[in-house]
Amino acid sequence: MKAGVPAMGMFEVKVKLASLTAPGRTEEVSLLVDTGATLSWIPREVLQKLGVTALSRLPFSLADGRRLERDVTAVLVTFDGRKAPVEVAFGEPGEEAVLGATALEGLGFMVEPVAKKLIPRDLLAL
């Protein structure tokens, strides 16, 4: 989860984040779309500005095999007119800010890697 140049096919999107308990308190951030990350990683300083606190602490496995624990919480994420509550991890300094798979699923977007954009889709039901 190091900052750096995005790999081919990876791209960034701007999203609006808000506190679930104070939705008027918002922050706009640029996140790297990463379908390999379960949760979105939001810089701790951004989450603190929103006034959110950790709900729990969960273990994560990194691509290089290392394991770590991070605080997690939930925020309201808005992108391209769609809004949903999303579970996110508190990113620490030096870690990439990413939009992960659960946020993409919850908001109803799929990744178009060649065009480097998110495409709206219907959510799936029974």
Give a summary of the structure in a few sentences:
The protein has about 130 residues and is mostly beta strands.
The N- to C-terminal Cα distance equals: 35 Å
Low-confidence stretches: 1-5
Total count of domains: 1
Biggest sheet layout = 7 strands, mixed
Order of helices and strands: EEEHEEEEHEE
Task: Indicate the CATH topology.
Answer: Cathepsin D, subunit A, domain 1
Tell me what the structure shows.
The protein is mainly beta. Helices cover 11% and strands 46% of the residues. It is built from two helices and nine strands, in the order E-E-E-H-E-E-E-E-H-E-E. It has helices at 44-50, 101-107, and strands at 12-18, 26-33, 40-43, 56-61, 67-79, 82-91, 98-99, 109-112, 117-120. Strand 1 and strand 2 form a beta hairpin. The chain is globular. The termini are far apart. Mean pLDDT is 92; it is low at 1-5.
Topology diagram in text:
Blueprint lengths: L11 E7 L7 E8 L6 E4 H7 L5 E6 L5 E13 L2 E10 L6 E2 L1 H7 L1 E4 L4 E4 L6
Parallel strand pairs: 2-7, 3-6
Antiparallel strand pairs: 1-2, 1-5, 4-5, 5-6, 8-9
Label this structure with key terms.
single chain, 126 residues, Cathepsin D, subunit A, domain 1, two-stranded antiparallel ribbon, 11% helix, 46% strand, disordered N terminus
